[in-house]
């Protein structure tokens, strides 16, 4: 597999990050060769926000935790929200959804890398996350100023 950002060859099937080479975050910065040149299928890029009080640190007012993810179906998005909620004491809310590919999600992760917290979670102002998703998706579904 190679990183879509920098072209570095990644070793091993379980390699999830390219931070050693280019700083890209998220499993979706990598690509396998597409079989028969078929284009990557569209699905849904979503933003889940951890609702509640924003982080209160002086330099981080109005920052919330956001998960930017991808699913092939809306049922998959809803299922992911339910699964994440089980392990989170704060209420999680589906904030926005747009049509996009796995590569779209990886592109958004890269754009938000300055806010990267862990995995696919970003500690950022909601406006910054929504703006990045709005610019990247092919069509808004909801929550993106549509």
Backbone structural class: alpha+beta
Percent of sequence in beta strands: 25-35%
N→C terminal distance: 36 Å
Give the total of domains: 1
Count of helical regions: 3
**What is the CA-based Rg, rounded?**
15 Å
> Strand order within the widest sheet?
6-7-4-3-5-8
Shape: globular
The biggest beta sheet is recorded as: 6 strands, antiparallel
Task: Give the proportion of residues in helices.
Answer: 10-25%
Q: In sequence order, what are the helices and strands, one letter per element?
A: EEEEHEHEEHE
List the defining traits of the structure above.
146 residues, alpha+beta, two-stranded antiparallel ribbon, 8 strands
How does this structure look, described?
The protein has 146 residues and is of the alpha+beta class. The chain has one domain (38-142). 23% of the residues lie in helices and 27% in strands. The protein has three helices and eight strands. The strands form two sheets. It has a six-stranded antiparallel sheet with strand order 6-7-4-3-5-8, sandwiched between helices. It has a two-stranded antiparallel sheet with strand order 1-2. The protein is globular and about 35 Å long. The termini are far apart.
Helices and strands in order:
Blueprint: E1 2-3, E2 30-31, E3 43-50, E4 64-71, H1 74-86, E5 92-100, H2 102-111, E6 116-118, E7 121-124, H3 126-136, E8 139-142
Antiparallel strand pairs: 1-2, 3-4, 3-5, 4-7, 5-8, 6-7
